[in-house]
Specification:
The chain has 250 residues and is an alpha/beta fold. The chain has helices at 15-24, 46-63, 74-88, 114-117, 120-128, 140-150, 153-163, 185-191, 201-215, 233-249; strands at 4-9, 29-34, 66-71, 92-94, 108-113, 133-137, 173-176, 196-198, 224-229. It is globular, with a radius of gyration of 17 Å. Bound molecules: D-glutamic acid.
Length: 250
């Protein structure tokens, strides 16, 4: 039986990483797991996020054969990747905020979640590749989900109010350090017209390919994606709908 690659996020954000993965690994079976019961992770503590991630993955692993886990969630990477690596005995590949890609730019503003900002891992990364400013938001990811699902102007306003204070820096690069943020790339680009938008999605997918090549031969199976969520059947439909939409747009 062909084993799955589990791709994990709190919600819709990781779909951007899933699409990169599917392009590079078209014959693989993917299991996209969204912990929508606890979205947004940005408002929880490290230990809480760690429990949510481990529990979500544990439930899936108990039912389906998994050969690799890809963290398509920067917050989960920072809180839970070490524990997940130790627990599940399969290779784990993790996205992280793309500060390293910003090294060649003169003025970098990083957008991350508040929980990511609080992590030692992130603090080490920013010490090496310091951005000029950081927006560590607990709720931006949630507003993005709500905005793209409903088109509600209220959420659009909140998004703009979060982004606009950083325009004073006139950045030449903006790091989208949460996988939900590339979902509104157009808004980021409009608010920061001279900035190159950087995110770790493609790099993570490439790393997954390298790791897979080390452990097994190329799969010849039929590619597939299955969606799993931690709360409510309705969200599964939302995932499917946005997967199709994002596939066309990104
Ligand atoms: N998409 C996730 C990330 O990359 C988490 C967003 C959230 O749930 O707060 O950080």
């Amino acid at each position: 039986m062909q084993k799955n690659i589990l791709v994990f996020d709190s919600g819709l954000g990781g779909l951007t990483v899933l699409l990169h993965l599917q392009k590079l690994l078209p014959h693989e079976r993917f299991l996209y797991v969204a912990d929508n019961a606890h979205m947004p992770y940005g408002k929880f503590s490290t230990d809480q996020v760690k429990c949510f991630v481990v529990e979500s993955i544990r439930r899936v692993v108990a039912r389906m054969p998994i050969k690799m886990i890809v963290f398509a969630c920067n917050t989960a990477t920072n809180c839970a990747s070490t524990t997940v690596r130790e627990m599940f005995g399969v290779p784990v590949v993790c996205i992280e905020p793309a500060l390293k890609l910003g090294a060649g730019y003169t003025c970098v503003v990083a957008f991350i979640t508040h929980t990511t900002y609080m992590q030692k891992k992130y603090q080490e990364l920013r010490a090496k590749y310091p951005p000029i400013a950081e927006c560590a938001s607990a709720l931006l990811a949630e507003w993005i989900e709500k905005y793209i699902q409903t088109g509600d102007i209220e959420y659009h306003t909140r998004i703009l109010q979060t982004l606009q204070p950083y325009q004073v820096y006139q950045p030449d690069a903006v790091v989208l350090g949460c996988t939900h943020y590339p979902l509104i790339k157009k808004i980021f680009q409009k608010e920061f017209p001279n900035a190159c938008l950087l995110d770790g999605g493609l790099g993570t997918a490439k790393q997954a390919v390298r790791v897979l090549e080390r452990v097994e031969k190329k799969t010849k199976g039929r590619g597939k994606v299955t969606f799993v969520c931690t709360k409510g059947w309705f969200y599964k439909q939302t995932l499917k709908k946005f997967y199709k939409r994002i596939k066309k747009e990104l």
